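Hi there. Long-time user, first ticket. I'm pasting a complex I've been working with (about 836 residues overall). I'd like to know whether the download I got is complete or cut off, because the file seemed smaller than I expected. Thanks.
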Amino acid sequence: MPRGRVPRTCLVSMPWHSLHRPSLALGVLRAACAREGIPVPVSYHGSLAFADMMLRAGLTVGDYAEMADTGFHHSLGEWIFAGSLNGPDFGYAGMRDLARRAGLPFRVAAAVRELADEFADQAADAILAHEPELVGFSATFSQTIASLAVARRIKDRRPGVQILVGGYSTDGPMGVALHREYPFVDYVLRGEADVTFPKLLLALAECHATGTRDGLDDVPQLCWRDDDGATRVSPRPSRLVSPTSITTPDYDDWFAAVPASVAARVEPELVVESSRGCWWGAKHHCVFCGLNGTAMTYRAKPAESFVDEVLGLVRRHRILDVTTIDNILPNEYYRSALPGLAGAGHDLRIHYEIKANAQVEDVAALRAAGVWDVQPGVESLVDDVLHRMRKGVRGAHNVRMLRDGASAGLTISWNWLYGFPGERVADYAAVVAQLPALVHLQPPSGAARIALQRFSPNFDDPRQGFAERRPAAGSRFVHDIDDPERLAELVYSFDTPDQGLTAEEVAPLVDALAAWTAGYPGSALIARTIGDVVVIRDRRHGWAPADHVLEHPREIAAWRALETGRAPRRVLAEQNHEWDPGDFGHWLRRLEEAGLVFTDGTLWITLATSPTVARKTHLPLPVLTPSA
Amino acid sequence: MRTLSAPHPAWPETVDLDFGRIDADPGAALRVVAGLAGRAQRLRLPEPFTFGDSAHRDATMVRLLAVAAATFVPVDWTLREPLPDTIPGRALCHLPPPRNELGRRWREAHDGSSCTYRYGPGFVLIHDTRPGGPLNRVHVEAGWVDTFRTVAGTDRPPADGAAADLLDQLVAHQLALRLDDRYAVVLPYHADRRPPPGRAVPSVKPSP
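Hi, the file is complete. Here it is re-exported in full:
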């Protein structure tokens, strides 16, 4: 243990952290301190406090949610606090113009910005009331400027209080740049802080005792200043945090704060992590993805300990809704953790990001465990584009995911991404023509041109076609930095000339997705085995109501084969004594004309959902009294 | 492949349940409703229903509608008379509403996921956001979970003891209806699955 005293510490999570979830970062850091036997920091939940202020000013929980959900785009959420950091009018006109061009909710944002100064003052007061010696800000997306605005006030009022900033917005060179540009920030702790944060507190205790700065160099990835004021950057650790060292988060203080806050009006969720990094990205990094920063190496918690962790938190906080923040579900969990959660027999509702190549038995395992919301990274149904992304799945696999997820009743979140260098209009046209047949499956939330983000292959490798880039326009309205090179080191998002389809060329896709979204509610295409036939009931928007009946055993066998997604010649080969190739081709065309199959050009897959995928549940029915 | 323009005879789009059949075996009627889940089939109650004529029938009807709500089976039914004063409109507005004019206010207030319960480790979480009451999360504590399971699993009010106490509390919170001395029903239904995505409701409620 150090000779000095560990500094009294307050950890802070600022807007735009979600209102219905505690901060995983704060929860993990509090637990990490407890594990090391050092005093657990107090917390300040700025998101709750700011939402309360917004309500008192006549704004709504929905307004907060809109800023939290959409504010990342074009730095609108950051801009709300930019006046509090850089002066009242800073970036106002620029963001107003950008919002007009980009269709951003500027009116609400401007109304919220009116509150930012008062809030930053109150937040500084509330944090200082804890008499901290160190204030640590967790800054993930859209939390940086609010954190800096409050940090500056704290430093102005009590220069002796030390300011620490960490979180994803400080990963890699961004953290070094932030430390350089904002001198009131004493320390930036980059990367995973489970181990390094307690180590920093102990090092500061030692520094306090010795009156030196000795030991700070031993805290990996720490940016600090030496006695001459020069920035020092400690080296990276030799290895990332091991999965068994990732602690169970401590959310006691957040849940204690909720009842008196606006969050009592929303449905709270637990937030947990079962893994870090991305097992797919470690092999084939999707070209547009910048989510894993400097920590791509995949590490999953042992399944049994994760199940215990989830059930322990559920029991402690009596919350049944759980969001995992993993980038991707550990593959082995389909056979370990998910059955473990299912076996507990509780009515959990869990969100997970998964890979889209899940098999039907995987989908059944998700449902049985209570994983009702998934984000499978579908991204596109165009085979060539998926290949350019390095997604490792084909269009037919993605359709299978949408179909089997629908069968199981899962909510599937996905976006359609375009704008990849080399993508071709003809490839899109072939898929867009088939989209009316998918109207019973969950549509994407929209189509979006890919953004250029730090840490992605598109950013790191100029050969990907995005060599020309500049800091995203919105960043100029939140940071008071004129030099584009300095600004570029600080930011995560970049503007770059459009690649791939033009706006005109993508219009048919956008129109088709709008029709899909409009026709989705109430559409159904369901296959059932009844006796020795298969009946496919078509009640899709835009299609004549029909029941298609497959009666011949060879039809049924071929339909079953196509359920998994097959090349027609392979189906023929498997059933070579049953089909004449011409008859099979004719039968396949009939399926195609009836909109019962999708093809990515190579694989063909059936589109009808099947209630058998969801056959887990038996609703316990009440016992009713028969009539007298 | 043969294409039919009418529903396959073994897979009707609408399944009728008349009250004679429901009265004869209410449990079997509930199983019929649950069996329609996920098959794009509707339940139809051909005769208009009157709440207040018979507590037993009222209890059965509430339970039948609750099973339909829990399994997302659409129900076509009508009211013959307005709800009696003994059944406040708020009590049932989370259940599938009647389709005729007498059900207009019920339909306007309807949110199928606004009154549900879910089992957790050592507790039951009741979620109640029906209009006219505060946003409500009620926990049934560990010692009462089995009692809740008993009370929720029958239409008979317990005579005394812990179950009777729990029922009284649920009635006081408008989470159960005591229909007469012999019949009572718990109003939230067991939400062990999610609404189909097209019917999902946002988790964030607009503030007043």
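A couple of notes from our side: Chain B has seven helices and ten strands. The radius of gyration of chain B is 18 Å.
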